[in-house]
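For this section, I looked closely at the sequence of one protein beside the tokens encoding its backbone, which the following lines show:
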Amino acid sequence: MKAKREQILQAVLELFMEKGLNGMKVSAIAKKADVGKGTVYEYFCSKEDMFLGAVEYGIGLLGDMVNDKLEGSKTFRARFDILVDCIIDVAKNGPFMSFMSDAPNMPFSPDTLGKLKTVLGGAMQNFIAILSDILEMGAQEGLINTSPTPYQKKAMLIIITNMTMQSVHSGDEDIEELKEFYYETCLKLFA
């Protein structure tokens, strides 16, 4: 049952990037997911529900990818670079970052926008927790302050995600130079 839901959510992500929210038809979602139209409605009652589900699904995939890659890394720099590399990879190779940046501008009902805000807030908290673990290692290595504020952590994530999106999509920046900038900024921000 979970596999069908994931197939539908993946189809929503892909079709959203191809056609936008208004261009997505349930019949096209069902076809792309290789399920019947009725099956789509078993899992979701509206496009807005599908969109929210796809946002949560994509956030979960990204979190899982970061955590899997962090496993076994032993230094602050290695862990920090893994986080940045995952964000860069998603920005380069997947529709999810564009999907997320468009999400707050979609013509949704106030109820759906409220739910979206909750989902995005939860995602930010999850990634702040990942960054906190990485920063703790940096503090243990004596590279950064032992008690960065939540605002500092959030600022670092916003710098990384927003600059990465802009750089990848415009082709303006050398990615290695950008990664070094993020690392140096992190050291300064958390000094």
About this structure: Residues 48 and 112 are 7 Å apart (CA to CA). The mean pLDDT is 85.
